[in-house]
User: Fold these one by one.
Assistant:
Number 1:
Amino acid sequence: MSQPQTAITPRRDEDFPEWYQQVVRAADLAENSDVRGCMVIKPWGYGLWENMQRIFDGMLKETGHRNAYFPLFIPLSYLAKEAAHVEGFAKECAVVTHHRLEADGRGGLRPAPAAELTEPLIVRPTSETIIGASYAKWVQSYRDLPILINQWCNVVRWEMRPRLFLRTAEFLWQEGHTAHESAEQALQETDLILGLYEKFARDYLALPVITGEKSEAERFPGAVKTLCIEAMVQDRKAIQAGTSHFLGQNFAKASEIKFQSREGKEEYAWTTSWGVSTRLIGTVLMAHSDDDGLILPPRIAPAQIVILPIAPKPETRDAVFAAADKLAAELRAQTAFGEKISVEVDKRDIGGGTKSWEWIKKGVPIRIELGPRDLEKGTVAVARRDRGPKEKEFVPNAEFVAKAGAVLEEFQAGLLARAAAYRDQHTVKIDTKEEFYAFFTPKSSDKPEIHGGFALAHWNGSSAVEEKIKEDLKVTIRCIPFNAPEEDGKCILTGEPSKRRVVWAKSY
RNA sequence: CGGGCUGUGGCUCAGCUUGGUAGAGCGCUUCGUUCGGGACGAAGAGGCCGCGGGUUCGAAUCCCGCCAGCCCGACCA
């Protein structure tokens, strides 16, 4: 029987979206549920999320934030308080209208007409308004500020075109909501959080991201200023991996968050909000994985090392299993990144090759095979997920235990370097309209190949230009990057003068 | 919500044009041989053919309606 050359079909270069779906499935991360647009996150995928939560939650705590929890349901009238906010979210809200069911006389159930709510509730698409209502009660004086609260929760946005992790009707995220005495302090908070997001993405998810500000067209509904981190994934599209919003006094006015200032005057508070979601899982997948499946950064892998006992003969089984457990215990006593190494021993009675391939597809950084011959020689067979699937190295047992942490750290650094090199390779300065259009136009239009990337090009600052380019090419401004030097140039479309290049790309 | 396509064991699909008692591969169970890289053989389990109606002696197959999913457009973390 002839095996496919790669564990995942199709390959990335053949059909990237389909490849993505197959990797999600092969890695056992999640599956579609019977409810359209909603996903079941399976233990391996949820383990990733738990690690992300633990890490980022720690970063928030260190910077003075505390967790709280606000209701899932929001009175319809709350959403209506901020005009731009309504505009942005009204189209995708789930609405609760009844509080009881009754028999419909045909063996089924229906909402009881007598139990209709006087005011419908919406399922939160985000919580600015309901949290604002609480803050309005909590804040009287400048002495009550700042309020620095975060919540981990689910939200619902009724999406038309769901894709596992990237865009689902229900998703998990954290949303931070802060209120401050001055615009400066709120802006500082917005910057602080963006910095945390960048660090989290780079140091833990191995994602090199561009930080910057969104153009008006891409701004959060109701925000004065939206900052973001943008990553490039392997089809060279951009993906917004996290956003931090300066809300000015828009939501404070809508929710009546007022306080008496140091000067004794009544003033509106200045608020921020910011979030990252389970979309990060999809981002990590698309940034690092290959044609054999998922590749996980060790710092977030639910298991960093898996031990596969090779017990061909029943009589060697007990000895091999015992040795595997012993090795696991020794490895767990070691550290990587200053934390205990996580190790799993897979004793399931299935074919050795099949088992190996399962873990390859799940993206475990290091696989250890331990068989009878190793016991005799005191070695282990080490395979790394960032090398070929059949490459393995026989290493003295003690030596591997001693250097396991260092290997994981090197693995993590390698992923980041590879992703950064890929991004840099596909980030180009473009100065003419012709070149710009050529860059973003695939050679085969019916089945577009992977093309494009990040284009750094000048822009006159007008939304009309953005709109035109979006219409022509489906390309948008991902951000106005912070690190870009000022330079004189001409708008890519109009030729008008421009002071700075912005990042253009197709996006998720 | 508009346009195109598809609904058949857990999964991927054939069968439908030309109606005649449900098929394959993978997966699953058991037994045996294997086992240091997706093993092989044998025997099994599993399906109101998306739902409802119609035509017919007879419908997975033809007709009508509905529902769901996928792809393409407008929206989005």
Number 2:
Amino acid sequence: MEGFFRSFMQVYRPMVTQLNELLAEYHLSYSLWQVIFYVQREGHSTLVEISSHYHVEKPSITRRVHRLEELNLIQVIPSENRREKVIQLTDHGAAIYQECREKITKLEHQILEGCTEQEIKNIFQALNKIQNNMISKEGNVRE
Amino acid sequence: MEGFFRSFMQVYRPMVTQLNELLAEYHLSYSLWQVIFYVQREGHSTLVEISSHYHVEKPSITRRVHRLEELNLIQVIPSENRREKVIQLTDHGAAIYQECREKITKLEHQILEGCTEQEIKNIFQALNKIQNNMISKEGNVRE
DNA sequence: GTGTATAGTTACCTAAAGTAACAGTTAACC
DNA sequence: GGTTAACTGTTACTTTAGGTAACTATACAC
């Protein structure tokens, strides 16, 4: 068990780098991608929903959303509740989502290449358990 | 396989947060811990060695080492080659390493609690393979 | 309808890393 | 053996991403 953090971190940095390189072409980064992903999956979304899903403070999400608006990937739609800002993907956003989704999935396959079915199954299970262990230990992570 | 990055990232943030909370008591962060860990394991080390091991630029390591010197955890020892700065842990550094090592190992156990032997074995194997896949794909990661 | 809670924003700060440029030292090599 | 090239570490500046505190506008409670 010792060395888990070490292994995990050693993988983390280059993984994010590769993801960001992949997304750079679209002027995106992984943190922006997270928002696109959420909105694509959930449809109409508010900033607080995104913020609490990813456990990131509201100002961070405000910034991410602003950049996505500038990139014309996300648009605001009128809401009955004038406090909240409801957003959705633009057509362009949906197209970019599709493109990135495919590339990211391909990268996922490349990165997991050589892993057995069993290893992959176990790694997903383990990540899930880890996530739950952390939730219970602290008010952290996941929706 | 799809969703691997998502799961991985969802675990990453709270994990680092917990690690940093654990280390905060010693005025450390995980990035500083990495240097302590390296020097503890390798003994006399130069900044370039650390830099290339973690694939982090030299200025970052300079900064980390300076902070560790301020904290009196690391000291410079005279080197025949006057270009390079050879460092080692101070006695205090070695003691702090020991304390942190134990706490970190404990946290590793907590976080992996509920995972089967098999899952743990596989997750280590998988992380290893991933690392290698990334090295081959790009000039990234690991020593 | 007055007070409280909520959504989003702004301004400011922090952590960590990257790039470029440079000084000092060593090695190369002709 | 003296000049050039390469290497180690540092400084200064920039970038990315997030956090906190304070504020505005709106909605809800009662």
Number 3:
Amino acid sequence: MIQEPVVQEPAARQGGRQRDPATDSAIIEAVLDMVAAGATLTGLSLVAIAKQAGVSRNSVYRRWKTKDELYLDVLATINEPRPAPDGAGTREDLAAVLRTLADRVVDVRASSVLRALNAEAATFPRLHRRYFEEIVAPRREAMTAVLRRGVERGELRDDVDLDLVAELLVSPLLARMASGSTDHLDPVRDTRRIVDLVLRGAGAPDDDA
Amino acid sequence: MIQEPVVQEPAARQGGRQRDPATDSAIIEAVLDMVAAGATLTGLSLVAIAKQAGVSRNSVYRRWKTKDELYLDVLATINEPRPAPDGAGTREDLAAVLRTLADRVVDVRASSVLRALNAEAATFPRLHRRYFEEIVAPRREAMTAVLRRGVERGELRDDVDLDLVAELLVSPLLARMASGSTDHLDPVRDTRRIVDLVLRGAGAPDDDA
Amino acid sequence: MIQEPVVQEPAARQGGRQRDPATDSAIIEAVLDMVAAGATLTGLSLVAIAKQAGVSRNSVYRRWKTKDELYLDVLATINEPRPAPDGAGTREDLAAVLRTLADRVVDVRASSVLRALNAEAATFPRLHRRYFEEIVAPRREAMTAVLRRGVERGELRDDVDLDLVAELLVSPLLARMASGSTDHLDPVRDTRRIVDLVLRGAGAPDDDA
Amino acid sequence: MIQEPVVQEPAARQGGRQRDPATDSAIIEAVLDMVAAGATLTGLSLVAIAKQAGVSRNSVYRRWKTKDELYLDVLATINEPRPAPDGAGTREDLAAVLRTLADRVVDVRASSVLRALNAEAATFPRLHRRYFEEIVAPRREAMTAVLRRGVERGELRDDVDLDLVAELLVSPLLARMASGSTDHLDPVRDTRRIVDLVLRGAGAPDDDA
DNA sequence: AGTTAAACGAGACGGTACGTCTGGTCTTATT
DNA sequence: AATAAGACCAGACGTACCGTCTCGTTTAACT
């Protein structure tokens, strides 16, 4: 799991001043703020981050050798695991799974980081892989599980491509995250509307025959 | 329209060597290639672009004072207008409109630029606005027109939010563009499948009542 | 001799527009003015000279391939030969020879060029050699001739080093040229005073024994 | 006095790495060497100096914002004050004062810098003024004092222009410095000969009447 | 309490890239 | 063919960072 930051504990501890934990978070906050303000992952430098955090360069470099490692810890901050939906019904379960995503999309700093990460995946392969393993994959599995159960329950057609359905459900939120048009998004209402429309379809009933 | 590049024609022409048009395109190609290779809009420098284009710095700065202006011309390159769908039927028209988008998504260089532009919208507001006016808005109108006609024809329900339907149709492609997972996308097949699923819905028929 | 400029006559003259002789002198004047204004020989560029002369770069490069060649022609402009003194008397002859030098020292443009040339002798060896052969050597010979005649006539001691006497006579003017403190120099009066003092000496008569 | 270089001490010293004093002198040495090798004051760039000194550009710019300021410190290096002559006799005192100058003339680096400075006085007015105040003026006063005392003692005529005598004494050395023909100069012997000749005069004794 | 060791801010340092400017060459249109 | 205008490449210059390093200072653990 990503939960545990990789800030290296210095080996043997026999004396000396302690690291200020406030510095750790000040730096990570600085990254989140700057990225949310439009900075690029590549464009950010440890120096600039230090300045924004009100901390000496030294204090940043002491903790992370590279931006890559720092960003791993930043990414860990974003992931906020949720319990699996309770299985009340397919419609509600889908909405619940989507909510997890929608909440992150609405969080400006989180969505900014993820948007930046997508745009620069090639530059940060390790970071991008981690993003997939820790954030994307679990959600996808949760979604798939709900969909499969929906078919079993007879609440979903059994002749549809579930992967496509999942993509259809998730994409509106992802697209908003990608474009940054996150303002008018109401996590509760909009996830509900998306689920409804995907389940019901937009075509006229006759048209289905 | 964006079609006409803004490369400034120097005022009065009475003598002097002519600008090499090959240089213009070499520079724009360089930008497209570098962005497709993972570069950031902010991260690119006119110097690096010149190097990649095999052109002197001077020749770049002579044409564009800022990256912003250069990118405007790059963006113009991407926009490839398509005729409106012929109106054979809602299903076919929707697929046709989506195709325009899907083709751009599949084009690595185009989608890379747009992905980068989305990620750095804050840094290039003028560019982003232009992107909306010239590329996004026309497609959206085309899509809306088709949908409205579908309702009039009775091929679409009249109780659905057409904006949401449009978003549902478009988002899978946008999301792929955003994440760069563009490899397995088949413009013809996949647009068809998306349209079908959105029209028909994924829910079991009984469930609709 | 330096008198004949080395401006290359274009080989065969078969037709086409004629060179504008005004351009030649405009360029040389430009050099003189710029050097007098403080420019360095190395620091001047043909481009800057063209601009100052109000002439296209082309027109300069067509005439002189290098600064070196151009400066040779500039130097030729400075040398203004004078007839040998008439031999009325040593005192008058010395003053006459010094006058030639003093007049050049007073000419701001000439002295500026020579001062610059001295400072950058290492960079323009050919030019510096030419300067010696064409300007310095003739004057020195003239001076030596007058001094030798003075000894023969019994107007000068026969136990002094004539080279040193010559140096003593010439140096005040050269030093002024070198330092640029040329303002308060009156060629007629000051050469006279220098000659008088050198002949007579500053020591009290008794002191000589 | 000029003795104290103007390398700016950053105001408050509370921390940070110390400047390497070896870097200071390496840079100044570089300037002296390059000017002695024929470089122009204007032509030198802080970049070239840094390269020659084997130091990063940064380290130069950190110390001096402009060439002007750097050259002030270079000039300070050249000035080497001497005690006033002891007053044994006018002849000896004059020789002693001239020696100070002759030694500087013989020092290739010092004379190169001063020659360059004279040639480019217009470009570096502040530097040139300083040169006068710190180097020229004191020597001139020393010289004048000796001469005046010579008159009082009856060792010099009382009807000569002492300023002219001073100029006559000093100019041969200055002229050599200006022309760079410094090789065959023997400070001890030549100053002596100059003083002797100026005191005694070159004219035949009868000629004075 | 004194010693030791590390955290911390400040800033020197070498290196690299950027955008500007200029120099000399080449090309085009005009005279 | 000479000229003016200007595109073009090459390279230097001064600036701005970046990441490393070395200081002097402060804080905490361990004698």
